[in-house]
Amino acid sequence: MKVALVHYHLQPGGVTRVIENTVSAWKINGNGPEDYVILSGRNYPERKLQNVRVVEGLDYMDLSDATDPLILKERMEEAARSVLGKLPDVWHIHNHSLGKNSGLSGAVAELAKSGARLLLQPHDFAEDGRPQNFRNLGEARALLYPTAGQIHYAALNRRDQSFLQSTLDDFNSPVHLLANAIPQQPASNPREIQRYFPELPENLILYPVRAVRRKNLGELALLSATHPEFHFANSLGPTNPAFRSIYQNWIEYTQHHQLSLTYGLGEQTDASFPEMVNHAQAIVNVSVAEGFGLGFLEPWTFGKCLVGRNIPEITSDFSELGVHLDNLYNELWVDSSLVDQESLKHAISAALGSAYQDYQRELPADAVNVATESILNEQGVKFGSLNEDLQKQVIAEVQSSKQETESIRKQAKLQILNEPNIQKNQAAVAENFSLPAYGAKVYQIYRNLLESQTEKVTYANSEKMLEQFLSPERLNLLRS
Predict the structure, then answer these.
(1) Which helix (H) or strand (E) is 103 found in, with range?
(2) Rounded to two decimals, what is the model's pTM?
(3) Which domains does the chain have, with CATH numbers?
(4) Burial of residue 17, with CB atoms counted within 10 A of its CB: 0-12 exposed, 13-18 middle, 19 or more buried
């Protein structure tokens, strides 16, 4: 079996790490393809990967600059032959539908027409809050999801698997669940770390993420306001200039309200990421949207308990594999009297109107009511769905109310699990998400793909995917 792995680039980041882990897993297992080639639109800056070929026109490109799909297909085939000596038995293509290059989306459609066996693995979706990417697909949108017995898909989580299956309904392309690998982490002595890095806070609850809007920094402030026995911190500040002013406002807010909270702790210490994690009493998540869900698995590899917010549509399959997250909460509800409801409804209406306009779709007549009822109902208001201004209003009210503080503490249930339960989750992650386990899953999918019957290619209605993501009840003001 000979395989081509394809991505726009191999710069440091999530998909590049996935490709590196895939190749590493094959080497560890001694059970992988006979040969492989990696096609990229840019030079690879590291040395971990071999057999890399740069293909002109494969990198990110605007719609007006995109290479003709037939030409790009031919270049990809030529580059693959230069290493493999023949066309690949399997094309494993990452993020073809993301809208970063309509030429690749079209080239995938051309490969499909030629009868190639394809494994298409979306990590992110143009339909999920990326309207500019969606528009950048142009006419390729109609060909975005080819389907036939010899075309399989791989999804990172149950939600993506479900959305793909619904989009491909009544077609024959299987959708495999293929969660990313989680390498095991070395343990360190917390006392030694404290000695070398005294600037690290005691009783630290660490949120090991870079500051972006969907990471919900306001909820970290809410937890800090209601749990003064801990010091909360996230690890890194933003790189997106558009978010920097919001981030700075949170820093000023926490200082003004004297919260035991540090934003950007990793930029205020020489301690490494593993050293900060090992020093922490626990790891916290408050993100409202994730792709794979690394943050729900990686803490256990360090032997650390995870506390905070769950995202069930991302983590539902983890519990089936023995990673129990029952100690997490799904939502933090606050009393509706703490929120200016007119401001909330105005924000919801504006956000929905903007989202549908960005995707050039008509706003459903009941969309505002549906979205409002999903955020504001008889249970109260979902704190994690509010924008930053409304979140700040709520935190100030909660701080001045013993009753509201106790309500948040009861819902958040920030209890650090005992060592036996931590070890059970650690073992489950090691068994199901290790590099060897990942490599075996990928190779088995390839084998299934090779055994699949060749059929005539058709194309699923890509509008179904957009409808699933662009849904009023999924509205979150932190993603608007």
Answers:
(1) helix 102-113
(2) 0.92
(3) 2-181+435-468 (3.40.50.2000), 190-329+413-427 (3.40.50.2000)
(4) middle
